[in-house]
Amino acid sequence: MDLFDPKTYRAVRGPLRDAETLPPACYTSQEFYQREVSEIFLKSWNLVGRADYVKKPGDYFTHMVGGVSFIVMRGDDGQIRAFVNACRHRGTQLLQGEGNCRTIRCPYHSWVYDSAGSLRGANGMQETRSFAASDYGLIGLRLETWEGFLFVNFDPNAESLGQYLGNLDAWTGSYGFEEMITVKRREFLIRANWKSYVENSLEHFHLPTVHQKTIGGVRAVWDPVDGAPGNFVILRSKTTASRATLGNAVSFGNIPTLRGPAAEGAQYILVYPCTVIGADLDCMWFKQMLPEGPDSMRLLAGFCFTKASVERPDFDEVVENYHRRFELVMGEDNDIAEKHLRGVLNPFARAGRLSSVEPLVHVIDNWILDRVVGPGREA
Ligand code: FES
Ligand SMILES: [Fe+2]
Prior knowledge:
Helix 5 (194-201) crosses helix 8 (315-344) and helix 5 packs antiparallel against helix 9. Helices cover 22% and strands 26% of the residues. A 7-stranded antiparallel beta sheet has the order 1-10-9-4-3-2-5, with no helix packed on it. The chain has a 7-stranded antiparallel beta sheet with strand order 11-17-16-15-14-13-12. By secondary structure, it is an alpha+beta fold. The protein is globular. Fe (ii) ion (FE2) binds at residues 200, 206, 210-211, 333.
């Protein structure tokens, strides 16, 4: 099978009711993965975290997307920037994890960069001819923000973040994401393909089976949103109560400012390629399905609440009801994603057929094929 021949995907490209799933090799092939990196991750706006991860000047965290390690740092001037995480002397990785530093000192020969990435101390270069420190600052990456979220793009010619997100604000404008506070973060290394985790996050078909013991029984009217201008799709769940706690657990109550679609229930928003924002009536969480190869991904999750909720005297007690639900449901999704990979790794696995109740799986797979193989979806 030629994974880069558009004809391979004729059955994925057709209308949903005729369509096949992606062939198993798309979830396991190293070549297909490399093409995803070059055609998707190195060209898209990748969500990398929240501005409140770097509150003070000198605060930084490191991150990796598509094999590129980079530093996100708040400068002395208050501005948040992203830099390639490699020294300009002989290329050593500069920082790991997260923390705070006034200057970045290379662990190899002590070149020193300031918080804006400029080279301030070029140890040992006094005798080197035609060397100007100003030519050897850290390599900057495009970083733009939306509603308190930080996005990085490696492509200098890419459209702006605003153009990339299109009219997403029409669905999210009333949550006040920007003022929300990230109260907890989680990280898991999962033996799964990133696409299968993304697909899973945008279909409700698996809820009664995978989440039987947790959120599987909650009734809702499901409404998929696709085709709005912008690189996102939304699975809306029309319910009157939040889906972010289990059973009758005490919750924070609805966010009073919600209007329009946001007031009608939860919205699970995939910002392509691999971030899902769970916007509920009383809180917001987000998760990134970051591939590290065809068969492994890092799941990074953040849980955010309004300032009013965080300031409640009973916040620490009530928030546990949310964390308990998040842990249980994420555990169930992590487990099914690993089972999916083990299945498609089976040499006898074949492409399957899609159900009419998982339309966004079809939409997502076609978005990926448009970039990896080239445009060509039939109406
Ligand atoms: S590699 Fe960084 S100072 Fe030498
Ligand atoms: Fe799930």
